[in-house]
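Q&A log
Question type: sequence-to-structure
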Amino acid sequence: MKKLIFVISMLSALCRLYSQAGMEAELGFIPNPKNGEVKALSEACLDSTYFYALPFYRKALIEKNLGFLSIKEYGNFFLPKCTFSAKSSLEGDYEEGMKSFSSQPAFDFIQKLPGACSLGASLSGNIYLSLSDEIDFCYSCIPSVSLSVPLAGSRKFISIYNFYGRNNYASRKKSLDLQFDIAVRNGIYKYVSEVGNYLYYRRISELYSEKYELLERQTEDYESLFNIGKVTAVNVSDKISEKMQFFQSVVEVNGNIITSEKALAEMGIRKEEISFSLEDFISSCRQNFLISGPVYYRDYREISYLDVELLDYVESVAGSLPYVTAGFSMVSPVSEYDFPNFSEGTWAFSLSLTIPFYGRSGGNLIKSVSEFSHLTGLEKERLTRRHLSSDAERKGFLELYETYRISMEKTAMLETERLSEYENLYRIGRISEYDLKMQQNTAALSRLYNDYAELKLILTELSFY
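Response status: OK
Response body:
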């Protein structure tokens, strides 16, 4: 018995593993990287493969695949839909046990046709099996066919409905693809922004700390000079005030680091492994994430969604129109074991009319489709104009940040040249070590500001998607 329980538990575990693996394959899961399987973040974060393994990218991919699963039915709009149903029952009593078995199987077939028409066919029957003293078997068969045609329609409506049938799946798939592209581009923007800001704040914190130490050392030197009467109390007070004012900047930058670390943790990035510089990260971003020219996914997404809304509205109108349905059915006589003889059975021809009372006539519904289509066209024109204005806005911001970057680059070059002069003056004893270190700090800050201006330019390019 214990062996049997063990075998059952092992089979159950294998089934769970198999089903989980199947679902991951179906939904396109990217497995979480294990220790040693991914390069150190100092290398991997500079590679686009690291970005595509982050949680928010995997979430967007799963949502995309789930969306595809939900729209599969629209890919077979004009393909027939078949269903099978069966209702079975056993009858008996407590004294004699089971007495009979009966079943009513049904096979239904529905074929959508152009112009909101539909063709239906079904094959149903009754099966009876007596289980009393003598076993008795009999059955009957009922085939039927029907055709439904809307009583209201127009050439515009029929053309839109036929377009709906042919392009419904493609429009929805395009919308899902664009939605996924938007999520990815938004993720790239957030990724570059958060990692870049963290690198900037981390480096500027180091430089600010160095400068604060220099100011603190200079303040101590002034206090020593004040004790021997070389400087006045005003000079000491000015240095203390300068140091304390700069200390506020140090505190603010350290607070920005804490906020940036939290943002990195929410994205699944460990700050301890970020050991590269902002300059290297910018170079990697230009290589891996920037594309040639703007890609306005959001505008295209809204345009594609307008098509989906129109198609949904057409489908709802098609279901609200008055319909006339013509049907023909045959009922075979009850047979025992022989093939049913329909010539001895009965037949029926039916004609039914369905008129929904929704406060709008079929003609108004058809007219509303034309108006909705016209409204969709106007909205597409508006989005096209916004697309053009966004392009002009993008060019304006890029020119603005490019000008700012060039200005920061020139400032960095000037401060670097000035540093060379300071080094020469220090060698001949014309300036103190404090002056040299302060200029070294200023030059390093100017280079960092130049890198940050480059980061802002990249983020501006990435923000238009």
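Response note: Residues 82-150+325-355 form one domain.
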